[in-house]
């Protein structure tokens, strides 16, 4: 493995050495993820696929783009990053996703789902316009194919006579089990093993015929495709304009190489259907792939274990479960994140009121609005960074219609090692721009339970945002009003909300100051503004973007009311926040207890 300095070296490996190489790659991925945490099952399933891609295509001339990036670890190992692979997801280390600044072999930034076809097609067209050689390959999982943007890309590409290739990595899962009509369609396609074994055996025989073998193989293949298309006129991908090739065993490198070369022989788009086993090569992950999608550090010999610790996601799911037992109008919606958002218990008990819509946040919001239109009480549990994809629907389908829809915004704030694409830093800015939206940001489990119950009992457009992980010590502070004032002996006040409240309490042990804890962070009440006018110095700390954040809203309102004291906002200032442990990132952003203490003492 260490001898491979670039993808070109992969092409020169003898066939007998390919499987040992794949096993070495797997072991490297397993031991590194066990140490650092990361995405395991999806990466283990894509090892042979990645090797086959690099044996046929020539990166970076041929752009290979892995959707989301959950399956790009083997790609990183084969593209000059073996020596740095131990740093993956660590501060200042390799990203867990594709990053162009990291390598010329990463053609595009990844992190969110379903964009690979659109991005790769754009790269392909740019190559043609610039007169460059090479093609582009979009590697997309069947889970990502539940996202609507994938179909927008497929539809656009299918009208072009382009030597463009989509590789569908079909492992029968996204993060939660795949749902919908496409999953059923792919299941039917997978169930043709005898035919495909014969097809490849026959193709190999033809190729071995001296002089005319390769040409004859291409002719027979095209005749077969014409015949198949005449019979299977409803073939989904063919109707869109693609040569559908497959399904092929995603752990048979020779078979994949053959079909990739066939795809390259066409002058129109091809979709190559590869069937892989998620978690391949690590028994724990093969048996329970959904539990090994994203994992914390673990012992290889024992497997990843559930820590058993209560966290905000579990509290949200349990609270919703309890409410659903008493109120038959309570519904739960997730976008392929049942376990991640704590809804697994709900999904098993209230099957008719649980909806996993796939990786389709925009649809989830609009679907929820439809449920609300008929008097149901839908809750959409979604990660903050993924909710960004539903912003149009929040405005158009929820807010304008005035529907009583509740958003459970999980992973709000810093999420740590997943880095820029997953930090939940934008929801405050875009949610507070929506008319009639009420936003809460609990700092404790009890407060989260209270707010979910409150939104179930009241009509309105609500968002409850909470962080990843476990609560910190927040004392027994009351949280039933819009804000809570913890009085000090001076005229200095720290305005804070969410997880950072515990940091303010730690700082207050060292120096006296007032704490104004926002329980409802938006809209801001007149009573809050009148209270804040009584201070001489105000310091706002928020785990969100400064632009459009609560601090800016407060400053505008205080200015209108004639406040003339000192006012300073401490937030994320117009930057994307890279990976690192949550505590380390908060410290670097000057949002921890030490920063609060220094601001109050020296500000």
Assembly classification: single chain
Strands of the widest sheet, in order across it, are 9-8-10-11-13-12-17
Poorly predicted runs of 5 or more residues: 189-198, 227-234
- Write the CATH homologous superfamily of the largest domain: Thiamin diphosphate (ThDP)-binding fold, Pyr/PP domains
User: What is the number of helical segments per DSSP (H or I, 4+ residues)?
Assistant: 25
Fraction of helical residues: 40-55%
CATH class label of the largest domain: Alpha Beta
Tell me, what's the shape? elongated
Mean residue pLDDT = 90
- Sheet of most strands: 7 strands, mixed
Strand content: 15-25%
Ends apart, CA distance between termini? 54 Å
Number of DSSP-assigned strands = 19
Count of domains:
3
The CATH architecture of the largest domain would be 3-Layer(aba) Sandwich
Structure at a glance:
With 603 residues, this protein is an alpha/beta fold. The protein is built from 25 helices and 19 strands.
Task: Please characterize this protein's 3D structure.
With 603 residues, the protein is of the alpha/beta class. It folds into three domains: 17-283, Thiamin diphosphate (ThDP)-binding fold, Pyr/PP domains (Rossmann fold, 3-Layer(aba) Sandwich); 312-465, Thiamin diphosphate (ThDP)-binding fold, Pyr/PP domains (Rossmann fold, 3-Layer(aba) Sandwich), CATH 3.40.50; 484-602, Rossmann fold, CATH 3.40.50. Helices cover 40% and strands 16% of the residues. The chain has 25 helices and 19 strands. The strands form four sheets. Strands 9-8-10-11-13-12-17 form a seven-stranded mixed β-sheet, sandwiched between helices. The radius of gyration is 27 Å and the shape is elongated. Residues 189-198 and 227-234 have low confidence and may be disordered.
